[in-house]
Amino acid sequence: MGKTAFVFPGQGSQRVGMGLHLLEQRPDLLDTYYRKADEILGLPLSRLCWEGPEQALRDTSVTQPAVFLTSIATLDVLRGQGIKPDLVAGHSLGEYTALVSAGVLDWTDALRLVRRRGELMAEVNVRVPGRMAAVIGLDLATVEALCARAAAETGQIVEVANDNEPGQVVVSGQGSAVERLCGDAREAGAIRAVVLEVGAPFHSSLMRGIEEEFAAELAQIELRAPRVPVVSGVTADLVGSADDIRGCLRRQLAGRVRWTGTVRTLTAAGAGTFVEVGPGNVLSGLCRRIAPEVAVHTTNDARRLARTTALAGHEAARPGAAA
């Protein structure tokens, strides 16, 4: 059956009400995580997760800790059922939860980091407003070429931000260049090319100005070598040392998310079962399309969580699974 990989979602998976099904099963999570997170951040994060409003939950500085908190609580529920990963990875923001699950970061330190990360990313959009767009139906090389053309024609930045799966690429940059890219992509035969509702031009060179400030935040946090193999979305490769992980987290701000490569690295390392740990099911769909041969499970509501603990648990809780 192969190994079990836990994959953790990033921004875009948030929804009002996320995590409530976890508390119904495990009321102790309220004190263990939710109230503690509210206290650490001085923010009613729990209420925003459960009640919204949706507009507040879309604020990048809120979205990132909210998705992280829900994923951490979900991870605790799975661990309580004896379900443990052999490998882990996360999509952008989700890499922080992956690192917590691998013992690299304490969850409270990771919470502070993702809150600051979200604040810095939102500040970029105030200084240099930007946009992101999803292009469906064109391969990566074609989208890269279209980005170069749109940038040359507009004098603005537009770059590949996420290689999510073959045929789904997200671009990021300044407004006119992103709009030109979308038009050019449709002319080139894209099934869809649509601007996304996000708070900033993530994973583009426009983010480079916050790298040093965020690196200073990272320098204050203890990172340990992973107890479970971690695949970084920045390199789509295994990352082993604390120094290498620190470098990847810095580069992640302006660097491309290589999710197609990440999933292929996980499967090459023996992953035959994937569990998306946290809100939403975006990664589950991507993983199925990248690696149709794997079993994929989600955890974003009570029914799916119960099914996952029943199906994935048999494989992940076997003797010898990683702690």
Structural summary, described in words:
The protein is an alpha/beta fold and 323 residues long. Helix content is 50%, strand content 16%. It has helices at 20-25, 29-41, 45-51, 54-58, 60-80, 94-101, 107-127, 140-154, 175-187, 211-219, 242-251, 259-268, 282-290, 302-316, and strands spanning 3-8, 87-90, 130-136, 158-165, 168-174, 192-195, 230-232, 237-239, 257-258, 271-276, 295-297. The strands form two sheets. It has a six-stranded mixed sheet with strand order 8-7-2-1-10-11, sandwiched between helices. Helix 13 (282-290) links the parallel strand 10 and strand 11 (295-297). Helix 2 packs antiparallel against helix 5. It is globular. The two termini are 19 Å apart.
Cα-to-Cα separation, first versus last residue: 19 Å
| Total strands | 11
Q: How large is the count of helical segments?
A: 14
State the shape: globular
- Mean pLDDT equals 94
Biggest sheet character: 6 strands, mixed
Please state the structural category: alpha/beta
Low-confidence stretches: 316-323
Give Rg in angstroms. 19 Å
Strand content: 15-25%
> What portion of residues is helical?
40-55%
Spatial ordering of strands, largest sheet = 8-7-2-1-10-11
Q: What's the SSE pattern? A: EHHHHHEHHEHEEHEHEEHEHEHEH
Keywords, separated by commas or semicolons:
5-stranded mixed beta sheet, 14 helices, 50% helix, 323 residues, alpha/beta, single chain
Write the layout of secondary structure elements.
Layout: E1 3-8, H1 20-25, H2 29-41, H3 45-51, H4 54-58, H5 60-80, E2 87-90, H6 94-101, H7 107-127, E3 130-136, H8 140-154, E4 158-165, E5 168-174, H9 175-187, E6 192-195, H10 211-219, E7 230-232, E8 237-239, H11 242-251, E9 257-258, H12 259-268, E10 271-276, H13 282-290, E11 295-297, H14 302-316
Parallel strand pairs: 1-2, 1-10, 2-7, 4-9, 10-11
Antiparallel strand pairs: 3-5, 3-6, 4-5, 7-8
Helix pairs in contact: 2-5, 3-5, 5-6, 5-7, 8-9, 10-11
